[in-house]
Every structure is written in structure tokens, then in C-alpha cells.
Amino acid sequence: GQWCTRVPLICFGTVEWHLSDRCLHQFGREQCIQLEVPDSQRAFHGRDGRHGTRDWPTKLKEFIAIWENRQLQDIVTPNQVGRMGYHDPYLDRYRQTSVRYMTPEGAADGALADGIERIKDMTTRRTELGNEDVSFIR
Q1: Which residues form the Aminotransferase-like plant mobile domain (predicted)?
Q2: For the whole model, what pTM was predicted?
Q3: Which of 17, 31, 50, 60 is the residue whose CA sits 20 to 30 A from 89?
């Protein structure tokens, strides 16, 4: 559907990107690692059109072309099945670049779930914790 398209939204001289690749998981889709926001977005963000040229169709032709071919910009990912694993590429990147929890309760729940996932990962891979074999945890 169109909600799953990564396109510029244009209103006169203002360009805002619809970056649906940032919230696929919320809609039951497998979350991919987001693409970077195009640099050109920053050039037009916050313009209100009161000053300068009003020839927006010419000035914004590259964005209009992307919009007109928006069907080519659809993001197609499979439905999410189960919970993402601790080492899912998206979660690895998310932990590096984002604030994960907004409340102390959320942080406590998340830390517990992460700990359980790490223990599961250690025992599944039969890795060692220090010099000790962790197979006894299973």
C-alpha cells in the first residue's frame, strides 16, 4: 500500500519525507535497517514560501519526479513472525543509535528480556562464559 512508500511529501516550497521504513514493525512487517534521509531533505525543511522564488515546480522537480513514480518506491518486507532475535541486524543497529526506553519500567522489562535472550543465545551456541562451559544453564 501507499503507506509503505518512501517518498517526499511536497507542499509548495516545503519537502518532508514520508519515511515509512522507520516503523514497519508497528504494522506487523519485518523491520529493515532504515536508509539514510536524503541530504536534499534538509535543504527544504522549514521553508515557508514567504521569501524568494515561487517557481516550486521547477525548483523541486527532482522531488516531484520521485512522487510521480512513487509505486517504484514501495518498501516490501515480509510479515514479522514471532519476536525479533536479540542479534537481529535491525536491533543491533538500533541499540547503537537510539534511546531504547522512555520509562524506568520499560527499561527494566527490556533489560530482563535482553538478559533472557542473551542466556538463550549463549546456551544455543554453546559458547563459554569466561572459562566456564554454560551448558549447565540449559
Answers
A1: 3-94
A2: 0.54
A3: 17
